[in-house]
Design a protein that fits this description.
By secondary structure, the protein is mainly β. The chain folds into three domains: 58 residues, no CATH class; 38 residues, no CATH class; 233 residues, Jelly Rolls (Sandwich). It contains one helix and 23 strands. Strands 9, 12, 13, 15, 19, 20, 21 and 23 form an eight-stranded antiparallel beta sheet that branches. A seven-stranded antiparallel beta sheet has the order 10-11-14-22-16-17-18, with no helix packed on it. It is globular, with a radius of gyration of 24 Å.
Amino acid sequence: MKKLIILCTACIALLSVTMFSCEDDPEVTCMDDVWYRDMDGDGKGDKLHYLYSCNVQPAGFVADNTDHDDNLPCPEALVFYADKDGDGLGDPNDPIFACEAPEGYVENNDDNADFPPIEYNPVPVPDPLFAFHFDENGGNTVANTGTLSGTVSELGKTNPPVWSMNIPRSGGTSSVDFGAQFDNYYVESASIIGELTGLEKLTVTGWVNNKLAETGSGGNRIVSWINNGGDGFDLVYNADGSIKVGINQWPDGSEALSTSGKITTSETGGVSNWVFFAVTYDATVPSLTFYFGDNSTVASEDKSYAYDAGAIAPDIGKLSIGHFNEESRRTSRTDRMFRGLIDEVEIFHSVLTLDQIITVQNE
């Protein structure tokens, strides 16, 4: 009798392994257990190299998956932390396992602001309508510090997303982490915001730290105030690392698509995985432009389109971050939730220049 075993580093099928077939023998209880490769024989397996087997432990594999040094030439790996600014202090959010400290890494993790210096010329930036810095680090509301704070003082937050002290270079105290499994988690306004209608010019900026390169149909929501594919604005993440915008339409039918690979993915969501984005839109030209940067690189222009969707139409939905809003039937579309961390979301009622976008990125 033969049973298929699948080694899931690259899903290689090992076809000639003799085992009991549970279908052929109904008295055999079949469980597709997961076993992890143990190359160094220490009883701990590598979580990235595993196979499924029916009640039989394959040779060289174990049930434990906590080995960080299975491929390293030392009996026990140590953890080191990135020291990007060279001050001798390591970043607790950017660890690596190694036999000895690689260049640019140190043993301590005492630095909460470990970013390499970026040279840029700061310029004046108009105040945003909405600024959500996610610095509360507790509770279930997110304050708006933009010019419309008197109209919309805060957004409500479910739990998850959880508060995290993993932040990008211009982050303050904390960010929000939606995790890597989709669910009905969101940050959302209590009601529809009339000031988000009629906009002919706008800029949306923020930081994302993606944990899973997997999306629901149409992409995972980053910032949205669309009314179920009708009026409004919808910015989504695609599984190829691009972002896409739909204005007064779903992004599915929009041509406004960034270059792929701009949003990187890390299952641990380390601090080096943060990516800064900016989207500008001008209905009077018309034009829509994407910009990207990160913790060590100033933002630069990616792609620009002659995208003509007119001003933001009046029948919009609630402002939502990290997921669909209520009007877009969130509860039946939970697989469109962003998987990872979000920070420093700002919405401007003007088209920022590149110098202004770089200033927002770094301050």
